[in-house]
Write a structure and sequence with these properties.
Order of helices and strands of chain B: EEEHEHEHHHEHEHEEHEEEHEHE
Largest sheet of chain B: 6 strands, mixed
Order of helices and strands of chain A: HHHHHHHHHHH
Number of domains of chain B: 2
CATH class of the largest domain in chain B: Alpha Beta
Helix content of chain B: 25-40%
Oligomer: heterodimer
Strand content of chain A: under 5%
Number of helices of chain B: 10
Strand content of chain B: 25-35%
Shape of chain A: elongated
Number of strands of chain A: 0
Shape of chain B: elongated
Chain lengths: ~250, ~325
């Protein structure tokens, strides 16, 4: 257990020393808060009756979750594979599951810290609404974070190099970001775009947080989608880590 | 017996990489696995370290099967892997703490021993090639292993750094650790190894002490020099121990057994004269033995196309 904590602490330091992580996980979401919170009129009718700045709170959290799963983890893990760091762990005294366990733990910690930074920033500048259903918000946030962490581990183990992980990560991150809730609200999107947005996993994360927060309805169907995604992504990285070990 | 291997085979798809390999390593020796790139050396030791699953064969490391006793062996086997780096932003002291058993005292002693104490706050990215290699050795030795695997230990190092690493390996053995060394540098094997096995195309073609392999596969000593104008090279062929005399442009090359050197030198020097300034004597070494072993004909590689025979020796 102490060895695992030491591993997690070291991984945490390595993530935080990475400029890309600081940019995408901490700086970019704060910028999103500052821009999105002030871009729309307060009485814009496209936000299901909510204030635009309130409506986008869940999207800020989604941006953090997507940045961790699509950029931070894939780049870090793929570079481990590319440089033979994974093999070094294979001959170390850490059991096989130690490294993925450390990644999940560390990514959850980074998620919580980055979300806290965001909410404080948003609150100081635009004010934050009280969550209608705090437990629902926590469930949505943690499940969403777990889904994207699993996707991130799977991408990192599947891609051969840090460069390819960076390329594919960006290619997924920006459409997810724009269609998944941080872009125009669904009511303002045309039908084709709104259907595409429905298959973007981040949409379900953002809705799972937004609906209990603003009392916009039951997020059960979105939670169900996330649960399926969590199982699929976990199965994918477990299979990949067995493959890379042979 | 620290390591026993018998009938080990491994293929990647249709390509047989390790083919019926068998050898033993005894306690406290430095055992070398030699061969050109692609001979199957790394795959062999990766199987022994439990990193790859062989298709067939029996393996015992300290009496345990690396396939099933992975975690037990991790605690007593050290590994320095080929082409395995560390994260760029990991610092030296963090690496030692990460892969060590958490005992700060022993980690500090290791940093001192391997001359890394001054670098402990340096990131991996900022280390030179020699410093990185020293760190890898230190990490392989972190938990007082009984067996250590070193794969291409000195690749990419300058001669000074190689010398340092060689001294370090001798220290490791002196402390009673058994060492398995994979290399394609023959001078390294000759300087360090008690016994070696030579691999070619996935098979072991010969094994023994470096001296035994040299005696078996590379017996010829070569003397080359530019002769004075009055000199008749054909006369050299009559000397005892001379196998043949060849002309390479201006130079004469005399090939024969070890004992030929003195008569050739005496003959060239004559009496009261300075010898040719470019006289060179090449004794057979492990590299000659390896080249003989891995080339199809087994012929002496010195007899290349540019040579014009002057005379055959009398035997």
């Amino acid at each position: 257990m102490r060895a695992l904590l030491r591993l997690a602490a070291t991984e945490l330091k390595l993530f935080v020393r990475e400029p890309m992580v600081l940019t995408f996980v901490f700086a970019f979401p704060v910028l999103t808060v500052l821009i999105l919170g002030g871009v729309f009129d307060e009485d814009d009718p496209n936000f299901e009756g909510a204030l635009p700045s309130d409506y986008y709170v869940a999207a800020y959290i989604g941006v953090v979750i997507a940045a961790i799963g699509l950029v931070m983890l894939p780049v870090h893990l793929a570079s481990y594979r590319e440089r033979g760091v994974l093999r070094r762990f294979d001959v170390s005294r850490y059991p096989r599951w130690a490294l993925p366990a450390a990644w999940i733990l560390v990514a959850l910690i980074i998620t919580l810290v980055a979300v806290a930074v965001l909410l404080v920033t948003g609150h100081l500048i635009y004010g934050m609404p009280e969550p209608d259903d705090l437990l629902g918000v926590l469930v949505g946030t943690l499940l969403g974070a777990f889904v994207f962490i699993s996707i991130g581990i799977a991408l990192g183990l599947a891609l051969p190099s840090a460069r390819s992980a960076q390329g594919l990560g960006m290619l997924l991150f920006f459409p997810f970001f724009l269609l998944g809730g941080a872009g125009p609200p669904p009511d303002a999107m045309g039908d084709p775009m709104s259907s595409i947005a429905d298959v973007v996993p981040l949409t379900h994360v953002v809705r799972s947080i937004q609906e209990p927060w603003l009392d916009l309805g039951s997020p059960a169907d979105h939670i169900a989608v996330l649960a399926v995604l969590a199982v699929l992504a976990t199965a994918a990285w477990v299979a990949l880590s067995v493959r890379t070990a042979e | 017996m620290v390591i026993e291997v018998e009938g080990l085979s491994k293929s990647y798809g249709a390509h047989l990489v390790v083919d019926d390999v068998g050898f033993t390593v005894t306690e406290g020796e430095i055992f070398g696995i030699l061969g050109v790139n692609g001979a199957g050396k790394t795959t062999t030791v990766e199987c022994l370290q439990g990193l790859r699953r062989p298709d067939r064969g029996v393996m015992r490391v300290l009496g345990l099967d690396p396939r099933t006793a992975r975690s037990q062996l991790r605690a007593v086997v050290g590994s320095q892997l080929q082409a395995s780096a560390l994260p760029d932003r990991l610092r030296v002291n963090e690496a030692v703490r990460l892969f060590g058993d958490g005992d700060r005292g022993s980690a500090q002693r290791l940093l001192d021993t391997w001359n890394l104490a001054k670098l402990e706050r340096s990131s991996f990215a900022s280390l030179s090639g020699g410093q990185r290699q020293r760190l890898f050795i230190a990490l392989a030795l972190l938990n007082q292993p009984q067996v250590v695997f070193f794969d291409e230990l000195t690749q990419g190092l300058d001669p000074l750094a190689r010398g340092e690493v060689w001294d370090a390996i001798r220290d490791v053995r002196a402390r009673g650790t058994t060492v398995v060394l994979v290399t394609h540098f023959m001078d390294e094997a000759e300087a360090l190894c008690d016994r070696v096995a030579v691999m070619r195309g996935g098979r072991i073609v010969d094994a023994g002490t470096p001296a035994e392999l040299i005696t078996r596969h590379a017996r010829s000593t070569t003397v080359t020099f530019t002769p004075p104008v009055w000199f008749d090279p054909a006369a050299l062929a009559a000397l005892p121990g001379v196998d043949r005399v060849e002309r390479h442009g201006e130079q004469i090359r005399v090939v024969g057994t070890n004992q030929l050197i003195a008569p050739v030198c005496a003959s060239v020097l004559g009496v009261d004269q300075l010898g040719p300034p470019d006289l060179r004597v090449h004794h057979p070494d492990l590299e000659d033995a390896l080249i003989a072993l891995i080339s199809d004909t087994g012929a002496d590689h010195e007899a290349d196309g540019a040579a014009v025979p002057v005379a055959e020796g009398v035997g």
